[in-house]
Amino acid sequence: MSRTLTACVAVFTLASAVSTEAQTASGAFTAQPGGSINPKVAAAYSVRDQFNPRQRHIEVILSTTPVDVAQAVAELGPHEVVINDPAVSGSNYVLLWVESDGKVSMNATFGKTMTQYVDRTDNSTLKAELTTNTKDKVAGRLFTPAPVKTQDGTTYTVDLTFSAPVAAPPAGTALPAGGGDPGKALASLFAARQKKDWAALKAAFSPAATERFVKSYNNDQENLKDALDTMDFWLPNKNATIVGGQLRGDTAIVEVEGPLASGVKVLTVVRMIKAPAGWLFDRAQMAGMLP
């Protein structure tokens, strides 16, 4: 028994070491004055380009404490989940965006003051040497050949190395143009929204959406206005086109394109939940502005 337990512990230790080695970060971002960011771990995941959300790139977070990257990639917006993760919220961290052509953008954040330093390898001030840059893994070094001076007189230097597998989202199958059955349910919600039909809207909400929009301290008109205002912020308000998405079991991520109330054309992702009565609207998030 003792020998078996020892062997199991040894295997577990080896597995943990491999996992840690595969998600490492080292080095420092140093601002003078300001201090240093000294990350120890890295996590990588795919996100949409906010200026062309039909395209994706790899985001990497370098932090002192691991984030829950599995939870992040299961959500509509992994970036928002990661930066609000208790492991990094209010702390110092560095975000990188790695393109398929090897270009890298950086945002170094000091959490206490929310001071941010932004740079990219398109400039002569920042360099990247990537040893791996695939859809499954990113690794390399990011550095400044010389100290960089900002407009307010602060100087900073970067010398960071990182390595991380790219976390995969939950498995799913592609939805057709129109979104299949989840898309049809979403189109019905759009119709109820245009008609300001509160009863139909309520019937289209998931339990989570109902909790968000149906407040006992508001009357129906107040709840309707709140729901419509929020949807105007999230979703195209007219000429919406459901372009497809992904089916993940009893959850569907539906992609919608069209203009917001402001006139800005966007791509929005919508989570629909399958219930006994059919597909229900759960939540939505703007993925980015379309070119």
Domain count, please report it. Answer: 2
Return the average pLDDT rounded to an integer.
Answer: 92
How does the major sheet shape up?
A: 11 strands, mixed
The string of secondary-structure elements, in order, is HEEEEHHEEEEEEEEHHHHEEEE
Unreliable parts? 1-21
Q: What is the overall shape?
A: elongated
Write the layout of secondary structure elements.
Elements (H helix, E strand, L loop, with lengths): L1 H20 L2 E9 L2 E3 L3 E9 L2 E12 L5 H5 L4 H6 L9 E6 L5 E7 L4 E6 L6 E7 L3 E7 L4 E2 L5 E13 L5 E3 L4 H16 L2 H7 L2 H7 L6 H15 L6 E8 L2 E9 L5 E11 L2 E12 L2
Parallel strand pairs: 3-11
Antiparallel strand pairs: 1-2, 1-11, 3-4, 4-5, 5-6, 6-7, 8-9, 9-11, 10-11, 12-13, 13-14, 14-15, 15-16
Helix pairs in contact: 4-5
Structural notes for this entry:
By secondary structure, the protein is an alpha+beta fold. It has two domains: 24-167, no CATH class; 173-289, Nuclear Transport Factor 2, Chain: A (Roll). The protein is built from seven helices and 16 strands. It has helices spanning 2-21, 69-73, 78-83, 180-195, 198-204, 207-213, 220-234; strands at 24-32, 35-37, 41-49, 52-63, 93-98, 104-110, 115-120, 127-133, 137-143, 148-149, 155-167, 173-175, 241-248, 251-259, 265-275, 278-289. Strands 1, 2, 3, 4, 5, 6, 7, 8, 9, 10 and 11 form an eleven-stranded mixed β-sheet that branches. A five-stranded antiparallel β-sheet has the order 12-13-14-15-16. The longest helix has 20 residues, at 2-21. The N and C termini lie far apart (64 Å).
